[in-house]
Amino acid sequence: MGIGNEEAIKQFQLLMEEVDESLKLTFQNIHQGYPTEASMRFLKARDWNVGKAHKMLVDCLQWRIQNEIDNILAKPIIPADLYRAVRDSQLVGLSGYSKEGLPVIAIGVGLSTFDKASVNCYVQSHIQMNEYRDRVVLPSATQKHGRYIGTCVKVLDMTGLKLSALNQIKLLTVISSIDDLNYPEKTDTYYIVNVPYIFSACWKVVKPLLQERTRRKIQVLQGCGRDELLKIMDYASLPHFCRKEGSGSSRHAGNGLSDNCFSVDHTFHQELYNYVNNQAEVFESISPMKEGSFHVKFPEPNPEDNKIAKTIETEFHKLENQNGLTKSLHDLRINGS
What we know:
By secondary structure, the chain is an alpha/beta fold. It has helices spanning 3-16, 21-31, 35-45, 50-66, 80-89, 119-145, 169-182, 197-206, 212-215, 226-229, 267-284, 303-336, and strands at 92-97, 103-108, 152-157, 187-193, 218-220.
């Protein structure tokens, strides 16, 4: 760390000493005993501009208070059938840990349908997993390895990605904005696997729009990425969709549901589900639970996210038109033969 960065951290910490006690309290749930490391994440996200980073963190803390984020792990998605429906259509899970101790988060981008619950349910589920990662998973990894672990590795499975994914772009933009503004610099590397043509076509035009800091984190791997991923994690931690070359992905791939980290029956989701329900019991006497999702105020997407979303939308429409033309020519040949 350079002298300039050390000075920036000192200035940042001095500014944080002046904020209201309520903001300091919710900041504790962010830093989990490591305030300097947490401060650095916000500074990195704003290219070490102290004023911008401080505003970003204060805005984040106010968002947490306004939306009761500190209590979100005591607000289960109920009834249980609704939670199961969310898990079956928002494919994400913890498959294991890298050799350096970083949690490996698997995301089924192509096969997530987001069509079995409300937008609020999916946003609530996403934030709960973020908070569980930051308050339970990462502190446990830190304690186990005896050194600070504050980031994760993400493996994105593009199997099944179709033009119909355009219908999900608004929800995904909301989730992306929540992460960018309130959980910055939490991912060490993004590995993208099982890439179809539709992704490759979009990636060519989206990649130049990304910040250099983000581009450096993204690696598009060949096939299911097994061989490359085995360099940074053991076989047991590989997501189920990376375990066999050419196997692709499915909601129920692998050796039973216990292997599939997307499944509600996987150890990670069972532990998360039980944790939230146990926390809810503690709060039950104070405030009776209401069924359904709770509502989070969606942040305004930043201009960069909007530009990327619109670019993806444009490329999808181009591919849609190409597919339509190809089909028309195919039908013409058949009918004219």
